[in-house]
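Quick one: examine the sequence and fold tokens given here and explain what the tokens say about the fold. Here goes:
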Amino acid sequence: MSRDNPTTRAHLQLHALRRVYPGWDIMRGRENGAEVWGAIPRFTITKPMEAAGVKLVIRAPDCHSLAPALSQQQHLAHMFRATTRTT
């Protein structure tokens, strides 16, 4: 398979995102004829985390838009967990 093939490139990008963000279920598909990339966290998002901006689902039109969104969400989740303690 050639890396110039759009499908092959998308599979490689998907694989790379899954390696970088193992705490997320990352997928790509089509919706109404348009390509859609998405991610769902594998960790529980509490109401306070959601209120702090951690999303239950991230959607983007391509991997180049999904990657920074995942990075931001990963950072928010990490910062939230690092600054809250359970008693």
About this structure: Residues 63-83 form the longest helix (21 residues). The chain has three helices and three strands. The mean pLDDT is 90.
